[in-house]
Amino acid sequence: MKYLIALAARSAWNRRATLSLVVFSIALSVTLLLGVERLRNDVRESFAQSVSGTDLVVGARGSPLQLLLYTVFHMGEASNNMDWSSALKLASHPLVEWMIPLSLGDSHHGYPVLATDQRYFEHFLYGERQPLRIVQGRRFQGIFEAVLGGEVAENLGYKLGDHLILSHGTGEMKLAEHADKPFTVVGILARTGTPVDRTVHIGLAAMEAIHLDWQGGAPIPGMSIPEQYVTRFDLTPKTITGVLLGLKSRAAVFRMQRTINEFHDEPLMAVLPGVALAQLWELLRVGEQALLAVSALVVVVGLAGLVAVVLAGLNERKRELAILRSVGAGPRHVLALLTLEGLALTLSGAVLGIALLTVLSLGLAPWLEGHYGLTLHAGALTPEEWQLLAWVIGVGCLASLLPGLRAYRLSLSVGLTPRV
Amino acid sequence: MSVNPVIVLADLTYAWPGQALCIDIPQFRLEAGERVYLHGPSGSGKSTLLNLIGGVLVPRSGQARVLGAELGSLSSAARDHLRADHIGFIFQQFNLIPYLSALDNVLLPCRFSAARRRRLARESPRAAAQRLLQHLDLAPQLWQADASTLSVGQQQRVAAARALIGRPEIVVADEPTSALDEDRQTAFLELLRRECDAAGTALLFVSHDRRLATHFERELALTDINRATRLAP
Question: Count of domains in chain B?
């Protein structure tokens, strides 16, 4: 058996020009399959990491998923606002340990602007329950001060003391700007691998201040309040987008959720981030499975190529099979030889595929992190990935039996004297 | 060397599925250490006979004994073993596995047969292969060369070394010299004879070229011993 493996390897090496193409196509298909799986897992991981410390997300009643996506991930459609007074009531509820107010709606060069207060820096947790860390400068204190997420600062090249102008609304189109009230960068956050990196943080009062002379999404004509006068107005927000809640005891989460859902002052909704995310994955499941099915088909195409190439080469190898028979090889040796060859090619393809995937993961990680805030892991294979790989190799093994069986039959009919 | 038959065929018949008999041999013996020339033009059932002796095909009826073992009663794996242990084959051309070196080609039977390794006694398979290649006048610098880079004459000598390694009782040569020119034919036959003698191996030499028969102790014609071809229209 050991000799047959060596012989199969020598034989394959002899035809390496043709077979390397087969190996390459299998490698690409394995890369695709594992890449899709890895991306899927990393997206989930990345989403879960973004809200690790939050027990409940609260906002105006509507779609739980929409609320979560908008408040935490700054994606999708804006939800309705909730009253500031309700937020304060929730903050003082005996079951609540902390409350973080969130107000969204403006942007800066496509990056979302999040208005919040000091509690954000104190209580917000991400990843493995890590707090936010300011690498440069300090938190905002004055009104027109901004703290930038790591990526915003890096990509737009902002340093402490730089000025920036916020745009009204979100998106990359030409938007109305709050040009009369520029902000100063006073702090830059360490990278987290979450949407925080892509966010410009300002105070709730600042959000009120820049909209003093606005109404219905546009500046009120003929009215302009210079920035030095804004403090004369009451800058307490009337409404906010939502709040994040941390509870004293996790066990109280359903009780608190019910309390909020039955809130008297206005219709509110409390969302468990994990449940809403599960809902999201359920929605995306068909798409994910279709993607996985397509990549699985690509693997099948790769393996079909392998079978075709090995089968096609068999005719020219009748002589080789006859020689092996003459020195004592049985048909079962011939079967093993051809099957081993196919298996060796599948394995080489798989190994090359993993290598390719690792290189791609490392190469694309900065781009993915930059554009999508997605951290791609490039290390060892996960159990799910091993499982997929085992499937590929199993199917490859079965596919390799085809040329093996053909060679078996051929060696019976050709015997010792092939007609060439 | 005592005179024992290494191959006995008696009332042996074979027919390919759906075809008339192509082998019908009432009687054939190859004695131990004997050298026999078998004249076998194409169409005389030569290939089929070699496959029967090699145990790749099974007789339809009659006896085919190799070293006392009745081939028809052995399993296919046992027949493969018998062939590996006791018979060396040399074919007309393209005898070698192209991607193995000359030396590795010679060593092939030792990979499949423990008996051949055992018969080498104190000699390692590698040393035996080198000795045989040396005896067959293949220069040492060619031993590691890929088989496909050797000339036809060199390839045939490597094939002879492979057939002879581990001193099998029988060597079956099927037109091994037809790809060689006349001088080389004679030289090759001499080498083959000498090595068969040294190993005490019986040689069954099948060819269509009657001029070569003079090198052998006994001359037969397949058309004489095979009734199937005699009766054919």
Answer: 1
Delimit the domains of chain A by residue range: 2-47+284-414, 56-271
Band of pLDDT at residue B1, cut at 50, 70 and 90 = very low
ipTM: 0.89
Q: Is the pLDDT of residue A170 over 50?
A: yes
Indicate the length of chain A as a whole number.
Answer: 420
Q: Give the C-alpha separation, A202 to A393, whole Å.
A: 53
The string of pLDDT tens digits covering residues A219-249 is 777 777 777 777 778 888 889 999 999 999 9
Token couple for A337? 């030889």
What's the DSSP call for residue B205?
E
- The pLDDT value recorded for residue A253 is 92
How far apart are the CA of B77 and the nearest CA of chain A, in angstroms? 6
Cβ–Cβ < 8 Å for B109, B160: no
Residues of chain A contacting B, Cβ within 8 Å: 3, 10-11, 13-14, 319-320, 322-333, 412, 415-417, 420
B222, two tokens: 């397949």
Give the pLDDT confidence score for residue A394 in this predicted structure.
93
Nearest 5°: the CA angle A255, A261, A267 is 160
The residue-averaged pLDDT of A153-175 equals: 83
CB pairs under 8 A between A and B: 68
Of A64-68, B46-50, B133-137, B224-228, which one has max mean pLDDT? A64-68
**All residues at 6 or more sequence positions from B127 whose CB lies less than 8 Å from its CB, including other chains:** none
CATH number for the domain including B130? 3.40.50.300
Q: Is residue B28 part of a domain?
A: no
Residue span of the structural domain in which B128 resides: 33-58+75-231
Inside any domain, residue B21: no
β-strand partners of B201:
none
Residue B44: predicted pLDDT: 78
- With CA atoms as reference, the chain A residue closest to B174 would be A417
Return d(Cα B95, Cα A26) in angstroms, integer.
Answer: 34
* Cβ <8 Å between B97 and A325: no
